[in-house]
C-alpha cells in the first residue's frame, strides 16, 4: 500500500547508480516501510543536464499548453487522493483525514498555478521617444533547485513544483528523505499528464551533499527552500556565490493574542484545532498564547479540556484525532521544552509526557503561567505544546509578541473591529489571522519577514518568484 520509492530523472524512474540509500520509517509503528535510493554525483549531473534541456523545451511551449499539462496533473492527484493520502499518513504520521485533505490542497495548488501561468502578463509603457515602443516582458528565471521538509509532504513540494512549472521553469526537487513517497506520487501524476522529460526531476540523498552539488551548478538559476532558519541561511550563502535568486520560507514562533471580549469556548476550540493540527508540527502553528488576564483562567481551562479530549493514535485508525510526531528527534526535543518550562515554574495542565513505548507519540500539552525565561518562549517547539501567559497592558504584550527574530505568522481573537485593525497593524509578521487560523490558500501569498525568510509562495506573488522582467525598447526604422 506504500508508494514505490524511486527517483525521476530525465523522464525515467530509476534507482541510484551507486546503490546508496536509507530506510523510511512509519512514525506510528517504527516499522520500515520502504527503502529510498540516494542520488550519486553522476545522478545529480544527469538531473542537471536534464533540467537544462527540459527548460529549453518547456519555456518554448505556450503558456496555454503548459497549463493543460499542469491542470491535468492536478486532476490526477485529486483522483488519487485516497491512495496518496494513505502514503502521506504512513510516512509522516498525521491522521488520514488531514493527509487526504493536504493532498487535495496540493491538487488545488497545481490547478491554480496552471491557470495563473496563463496570466503572466507583461506591459506597455508609454514612451517619451516618438515612434518607439517600450515593453516589459515576463520570462521564466531558469532551472530551479527546490528543497522541502517532512511536515507537509504534499503541499510544500506542490507549491514549489507548480510555481516553477507554471512560470515556464524546469525544476529539480529534493524532498525530505523521511517523507519521499508523497512527492514521488505527485511526480507520477505529472508524468502521466504528459510532462516532457527533464522538466521535473526528483532526487534524494544526504541533504547537504545534494544542496551543495545542485546550487554550485551554473544550470541552476533559482533556489527555493522551506525549513529551519540556520539551514536557510546556509543555502542562501551557497546561492550567493552564483548570484542565484532565492525564496526562503523559514521557521516561525507564532504569537496568539486573545482579547477580553471574546467567546472563550469558541476561541479555545478554534485555537486548539489550529495548535494541534499535525501534532503542532507546522511552521505557522499557533504557539505563544498571550491571553488577556480577564479571561485567562477560563481560557486555559477550556483550552486544556480541548487538548485532553484529543484521541492520540495511529493516523490510519478511524478514531485518531492526532497522530505521532514525525521522528524520534521531535520527541526528545519536545520533552526537553516541557522539562525546561517546568524547571522555570510553568504549570502543566494536561499532557507533558510521551505516550506508549512504540511510535513517536507525545501527549497534547498545555503549559500555563510560562515565564519569559523558559526556552519555549523564545525557541520554536515544533510540537504539540501550547505555552500561555496572561497580559493586561497592550503595549507590553505587543513588545513580547514582536520581540523575537521570527516573523512568519500571528493570530488574534477579538469581537472588536477596532481592536482587530489595531493588532493587525501592530504585529510584525508576514501572515496574520484574525478570529481564525486558516491563513494559507493556493491563491494567497505565503511568506515571512525578519529571520522567517523572504519571498512568497502562493498567489500571484508565488508565480512572480520564478519570473524575471525584460525591458525591450523598439524604435521604428
Q: Can you tell me the CATH topology of the largest domain?
A: Aldehyde Dehydrogenase, Chain A, domain 1
Number of contiguous helices: 14
Radius of gyration: 23 Å
In total, the number of domains comes to 2
The CATH superfamily of the largest domain turns out to be Aldehyde Dehydrogenase, Chain A, domain 1
Mean pLDDT across the residues is 97
Secondary-structure arrangement, i.e. CATH architecture of the largest domain: 3-Layer(aba) Sandwich
- Which structural class do you get from the secondary structure elements? alpha/beta
DSSP, total strands:
22
Spatial separation of the terminal alpha carbons: 66 Å
Largest sheet: 7 strands, mixed
Strand order of the largest sheet: 14-15-16-13-12-18-19
What would you call the quaternary organization? single chain
Shape: globular
β content, as a range?
A: 15-25%
- Name the CATH class of the largest domain: Alpha Beta
Q: Which ranges are low-confidence, i.e. pLDDT below 50, for 5 or more consecutive residues?
A: none
The helical percent reads 25-40%
Structure notes:
- The chain is α/β, with parallel strands linked by helices and 477 residues long.
- The chain folds into two domains: 7-250 and 452-475, Aldehyde Dehydrogenase, Chain A, domain 1 (3-Layer(aba) Sandwich), CATH 3.40.605.10; 254-441, Aldehyde Dehydrogenase, Chain A, domain 2 (3-Layer(aba) Sandwich).
- The protein has helices spanning 41-60, 63-79, 81-92, 96-116, 155-167, 181-192, 207-216, 229-240, 264-276, 296-308, 328-343, 394-401, 417-426, 459-464; strands at residues 7-9, 12-14, 21-25, 32-37, 123-125, 132-140, 144-147, 171-174, 200-203, 222-226, 245-249, 254-258, 286-292, 347-350, 365-368, 385-391, 406-407, 409-413, 431-434, 449-450, 453-454, 467-475.
- Strands 14-15-16-13-12-18-19 form a seven-stranded mixed β-sheet, sandwiched between helices. It has a six-stranded mixed β-sheet with strand order 9-8-7-10-11-21, sandwiched between helices. Strands 5-6-22 form a three-stranded antiparallel β-sheet, with no helix packed on it.
- The longest helix is centred in the first third of the chain and has 21 residues, at 96-116.
- The chain is globular and about 75 Å long.
- The model has no long low-confidence stretch (mean pLDDT 97).
Amino acid at each position: 500500500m506504500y508508494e514505490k520509492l524511486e527517483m525521476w530523472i530525465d523522464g525515467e524512474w530509476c534507482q541510484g547508480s551507486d546503490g546508496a540509500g536509507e530506510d523510511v520509517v512509519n512514525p506510528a509503528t517504527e516499522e520500515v516501510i520502504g527503502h529510498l535510493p540516494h542520488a550519486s554525483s553522476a545522478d545529480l549531473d544527469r538531473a542537471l543536464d536534464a533540467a537544462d534541456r527540459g527548460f529549453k523545451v518547456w519555456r518554448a511551449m505556450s503558456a496555454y499548453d503548459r497549463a493543460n499539462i499542469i491542470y491535468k496533473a492536478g486532476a490526477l492527484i485529486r483522483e488519487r487522493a485516497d491512495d496518496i493520502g494513505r502514503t502521506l499518513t504512513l510516512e509522516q504520521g498525521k491522521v488520514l483525514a488531514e493527509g487526504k485533505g493536504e493532498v487535495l490542497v496540493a491538487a488545488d495548488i497545481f490547478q491554480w498555478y496552471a491557470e495563473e501561468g496563463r496570466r503572466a502578463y507583461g506591459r506597455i509603457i508609454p514612451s517619451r521617444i516618438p515612434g518607439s515602443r517600450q515593453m516589459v516582458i515576463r520570462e521564466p528565471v531558469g532551472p530551479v533547485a527546490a528543497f522541502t521538509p517532512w511536515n507537509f509532504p504534499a503541499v510544500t513540494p506542490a507549491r514549489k513544483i507548480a510555481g516553477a512549472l507554471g512560470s515556464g521553469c524546469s525544476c529539480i526537487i529534493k524532498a525530505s528523505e523521511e517523507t519521499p513517497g508523497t512527492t514521488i506520487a505527485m511526480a507520477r501524476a505529472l508524468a502521466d499528464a504528459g510532462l516532457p522529460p527533464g522538466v521535473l526531476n526528483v532526487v534524494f540523498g544526504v541533504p547537504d551533499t545534494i544542496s551543495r552539488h545542485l546550487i554550485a551548478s551554473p544550470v541552476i538559476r533559482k533556489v527555493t527552500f522551506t525549513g529551519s532558519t540556520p539551514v536557510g541561511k546556509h543555502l542562501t550563502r551557497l546561492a550567493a556565490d552564483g548570484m542565484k535568486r532565492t525564496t526562503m520560507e523559514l521557521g516561525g514562533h507564532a504569537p496568539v493574542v486573545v482579547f477580553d471580549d471574546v467567546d472563550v469556548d469558541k476561541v479555545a476550540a478554534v485555537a486548539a484545532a489550529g495548535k494541534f493540527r499535525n501534532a503542532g508540527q507546522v511552521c505557522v502553528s499557533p504557539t505563544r498564547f498571550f491571553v488577556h488576564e480577564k479571561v485567562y483562567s477560563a481560557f486555559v481551562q477550556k483550552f486544556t479540556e480541548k487538548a485532553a479530549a484529543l484521541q492520540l493514535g495511529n493516523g490510519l485508525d478511524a478514531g485518531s484525532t492526532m497522530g505521532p510526531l514525525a521522528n524520534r528527534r521531535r520527541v526528545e526535543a519536545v520533552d526537553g521544552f516541557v522539562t525546561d518550562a517546568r524547571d522555570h515554574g510553568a504549570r502543566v495542565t494536561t499532557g507533558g509526557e510521551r505516550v506508549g513505548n512504540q511510535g513517536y507519540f507525545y501527549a497534547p500539552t498545555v503549559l500555563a503561567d510560562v515565564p519569559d525565561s523558559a526556552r519555549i518562549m523564545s525557541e520554536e517547539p515544533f510540537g504539540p505544546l501550547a505555552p500561555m501567559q496572561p497580559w493586561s497592558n497592550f503595549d507590553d504584550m505587543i513588545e513580547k509578541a514582536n520581540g523575537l527574530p521570527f516573523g512568519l505568522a500571528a493570530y488574534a481573537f477579538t469581537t472588536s473591529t477596532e481592536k482587530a485593525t489595531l493588532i493587525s497593524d501592530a504585529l510584525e509578521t508576514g501572515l496574520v489571522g484574525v478570529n481564525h487560523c486558516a491563513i494559507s490558500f493556493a491563491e494567497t501569498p505565503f511568506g515571512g519577514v525578519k529571520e522567517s525568510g523572504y519571498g512568497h509562495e502562493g498567489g500571484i506573488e508565488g508565480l512572480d518568484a520564478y519570473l524575471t522582467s525584460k525591458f525591450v525598447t523598439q524604435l521604428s526604422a
